[in-house]
Amino acid sequence: MYQERVLSGMRPTGRLHLGHYHGVLRNWVRLQSEYPCLFFVADWHALTTDYDEPDKIEDNVWDMLIDWLAAGVDPSQATLFIQSRIPEHAELFLLLSMMTPLAWLERVPTYKDQQEKLSHKDLTTYGFLGYPLLQAADILIYRAGRVPVGEDQVPHVEFTREIARRFNHLYGREPGFEDKVREAVKKLGRKRARLYEELRTRYQQEGDEAALEQAHALLGETQSLSLGDRERLFGHLEGGGKLILVEPGALLTEAARMPGLDGQKMSKSYGNAIALREDPESVRAKIRTMQTDPARVRLTDPGDPGKCPVWQFHLVYSPDDTRAWVDSGCRSAGIGCLECKQPVIDAVLREQAPMHERAQTYLDDPSLLRAIVADGCERARRLAQETLRDVREAMGLHYT
Ligand code: TRP
Ligand code: SF4
Question: Domains in the chain, please, with CATH?
């Protein structure tokens, strides 16, 4: 069956922490066995804000890739690559920029928000304004159907859909479209071709949505179709031109709110994070010195888990019986805070042990990581080139 591609990227901002693991990476690990997945390091996106200090990006790229692998992202299932190694992203970005209204970029909410947040930097740049368009190119060049992102990125996926629609509208009707459709229908084989035409008629004349769905399924399971022909037949069904670019949907990562050591959301900039591959001694020390309910000054003072960041960790890590033990022990002053923290320490260390182990392989032999990325880049590049060929052709740039 034809499976939607899943694509996501992350800017190389340095070592990842448990918030990234619970918020993003665990989700990727689940998706990689369900869909063809592409995960990439958005190093050009890092440059849009860090153009004045590019030297730290390189280390961050490799550290982050090791973190992904440590978390269980599996290169034999997912394709891992680095954005800047696939120059096709830049070409698509350029071509899309020709038809992108400035106002669309100016009204993307992250544009003004980030400028205000990073007010110490001059972000009145062409590159920063273009951030969402570069992201759109990242997504569209792989014809990704699903983009797992956090809530803050949803406007960028929305923007990408608008760009795809505008592109298809402007350039979708390729010269000779009707002939190419006829050829593609033939390739379906007699029986399927007849069914396809019948379903199309039912949809177009009677607005029968079920027929449309059935036709989609039919095309989905026809292995022999090239991607181009498949898109033509999809376009023909709905009476449009060829859908050259695919409109993606956001796959909203459920907000697994990983608390930081102080109870706020875990974030490197708040200084409340535990790194994914933090040294076990340091994990112990950080959790032992964590804030607890300020009302519990002495062991004999009862506490309220609702006012304690440690409780937030129990919500992430502890089974019901441990939580019940914490709740009653805290409220009755029956347990001490260090005692209460021990199951959290154990659970975090248990979670991290396999991560350290997986990472060690790549730390011992960096060439392994280089090989994985080289292989991923090669695979990604072939897919990107396929889309770009269609884009160039649609825009009339295929002269030789
Ligand atoms: N902007 C995304 C972030 O900051 C990173 C990103 C770049 C991305 N290109 C992408 C995410 C394409 C998903 C798809 O998190
Ligand atoms: Fe927090 Fe546990 Fe201490 Fe209660 S006993 S204040 S939940 S650390």
Answer: 2-172+247-257+366-394 (3.40.50.620), 177-237 (no CATH), 277-363 (1.10.240.10)
